[in-house]
Amino acid sequence: MVPQYKLTYFNLKGLGEPLRFLLKYGNLDFEDIRYELKDWPQIKDKQPFGQLPTLEHNGKVAVQSIAIARYLAKQVKLTGANDWEDLEIDSVIDTITDLRAKIISNHENEEAMKQVRKESIPFYLNRLETIAKNNKGHLAVGKLTWADVYFAGALDFINARAGVNIIEKYPNLQKVVDTVLTIPQIKKWVATRPKTDL
Amino acid sequence: MVPQYKLTYFNLKGLGEPLRFLLKYGNLDFEDIRYELKDWPQIKDKQPFGQLPTLEHNGKVAVQSIAIARYLAKQVKLTGANDWEDLEIDSVIDTITDLRAKIISNHENEEAMKQVRKESIPFYLNRLETIAKNNKGHLAVGKLTWADVYFAGALDFINARAGVNIIEKYPNLQKVVDTVLTIPQIKKWVATRPKTDL
């Protein structure tokens, strides 16, 4: 049978892994297409906005990883119970994106990264830790949502670029990640997925 | 009567104006709180993530401008008809955000901005123009959605930072903006809102 979804990304975790986590969580059948970075110059111009990941479904192609994650979250029933709950989830997702952008945009500059490790990471993590504490080990609305799955799926790449385990001193954030990684479908995926550094 | 919503931002258009457009579009009663930039150092630490805008509703406060915009879009019925349509809308919103980030992060460096004007802006705008053409003068799903209202509300600030009118050569994108700016509630708001440079 032809898979329902086609996810195209690089052969790394990066911005693709949170989407793979969501697809696996919901047992959605998908083709996991992975390009090597060295082949990117030949492939870039064929992408709608010169970027990956893309998601193909019913013959249509979508871009933008967070938008795709939100769509998948709806398919696997990991959204909020009402509009305000979805706002809480979207808000923490965009905050994770801000933190990641701060790390990614500075990771090649060791002086800048020292500052990011000393200031930005604790600034964000202290606040996210309080949120996780107030939500009983979740990132929003007091239960498992796509914010938790997204964060757990994004963490390896963020940590690799940060050069530290950003949640090491934050037990409630560690609980968020542990909860996701012990979900059987996710646990199996992590044990069997292609091994990559990033 | 106490307004239902409280929007807190700076006394400028920036990331706040698309939210004001959405509130005005839906005739939602809101308090439009505007801080002067010079007062920001005293206010910053009181914000949940040291950032504005925030939206207050029913005694709860939300952060992150795009997340807030999506929430308001649901209240004023400017979303898609199904999950895939919402993905199309979210995707174009995130693309506008990418373009804006590229402009904002370089606007203080004239050499970098020359490159942004020569490469990034045409790259994004050509693709967005094709989308607007294929969607009959809208940014997604062939009808008015919050993507159109967001873009029209964000444009003045983007243009001010870009130093050019980025849609000048793109008739279908101009049509998107014209359609929004002729909606009576929006037209009235633009005519009567506080005058600001950014």
What integer value in Å does the Rg of chain A equal?
17 Å
Poorly predicted ranges of chain A: none
Please tell me what the overall shape of chain A is: globular
Mean pLDDT of chain A: 97
Structural class of chain A: alpha+beta
Q: What percentage of residues of chain A falls in helices of 4 or more residues? A: 55-70%
Biggest sheet layout of chain A: 4 strands, mixed
> Could you name the CATH class of the largest domain in chain A?
Mainly Alpha
Number of DSSP strand runs of chain A: 4
| Largest interface (CB < 8 Å) | A-B, 30 and 30 residues
Question: What number of domains of chain A?
Answer: 2
CATH topology of the largest domain in chain A: Glutathione S-transferase Yfyf (Class Pi), Chain A, domain 2
- Do you know the CATH architecture of the largest domain in chain A? Up-down Bundle
Q: Span from first to last CA of chain A?
A: 31 Å
How much of the polypeptide of chain A forms β-strand, as a percent range? 5-15%
What is the fold's blueprint, element by element?
The structure is a homodimer of 198-residue chains.
Chain A: E1 5-10, H1 17-25, E2 30-35, H2 40-44, E3 54-57, E4 60-63, H3 65-75, H4 83-106, H5 110-134, H6 146-162, H7 171-181, H8 184-192
Parallel strand pairs in A: 1-2
Antiparallel strand pairs in A: 1-3, 3-4
